[in-house]
Please model this.
Amino acid sequence: MAKTLAPLVARWLERGCTSADLARALLPGLLTPVHSTPAALRSRLERKLPPAPVPSCPATARCAECHDPVPRAGTCRSCTGFPVRTAAVGAGGTVTCGWVSRARDALRAARSVGPGFGSLLPTG
Model:
């Protein structure tokens, strides 16, 4: 019995639960008499398993002088005297304008449909 339940208990412990947490999850509200203790424990261990912990975001390094976020620990480019890099976007303005006009045309077409989807869109 213990060998079959041990992996389930291990999953609880991996998620940061203590023996007190296990006792609070397994013991309250048990029906008397318990016809199959292993089955009751297995069921509760599976049903009440706490969610897996969400991985935390990696800590952001800060500039030692101005405390701005930097990719690595140390000093940022502006504090060391190097020029600040700007991202080259290329033809971003043209691409954005093209998508905006497509979205505008799609909304206008949806409005002209009449009742249904078009009536849910704001007019004007």
The first strand starts at residue 61 and ends at 62.
